Amino acid sequence: MKHVKAADGKRFQNSMNCIAIEYLFEGEEDINNAVIELNGRYPDKGLSLNEVCKEVIYVIEGNGIIGDSINTFNLTKDDMVQIESGEQYYLEGKMKLLISSAPAWYPEQYKIVF
């Protein structure tokens, strides 16, 4: 069993609209987690793309949308979305999200596409 204290979360400002607190389990490369506070659109323009990581997004509170270049889905509290590696998407709304990535997310595999 592994445990991460809230005080050990690493805070990142991804954009003006998006703050992430990443929680890393020591020595873990198979999965990681972040709590995201979104107030607007992320990314600001274009779409997010993880080349390697699969993500599961859980809406802790709030509401908004997740979309790609074709589809848009409404999100509300307790909704969950799975995003496969290679899928392009954006998020928009006022939401607090839990995002789990497998394998553990790392910046070199992440891109914003236009």
Write the topology of this structure.
Elements lengths: L9 E6 L2 E6 L8 E11 L4 E4 L3 E14 L4 E5 L3 E4 L4 E15 L7 E4 L1
Antiparallel strand pairs: 1-2, 2-3, 3-8, 4-8, 4-9, 5-6, 5-7, 5-8
Structural class: mainly beta
CATH superfamily: Jelly Rolls
Fraction in beta strands: over 45%
CATH class division: Mainly Beta
What distance separates the N and C termini? 41 Å
> Helix tally?
0
CATH architecture annotation: Sandwich
Shape designation: globular
Uncertain runs: none
- Nearest-angstrom radius of gyration? 13 Å
| Main sheet characteristics | 9 strands, antiparallel
Total tally of structural domains? 1
Order of helices and strands: EEEEEEEEE
Chain-averaged pLDDT:
96
Number of strand segments: 9
Overview of the molecule:
With 114 residues, the chain is mainly beta. The protein has a single domain, classed as Sandwich (Jelly Rolls), CATH 2.60.120. Helices cover 0% and strands 61% of the residues. It contains no helices and 9 strands. The termini are far apart.
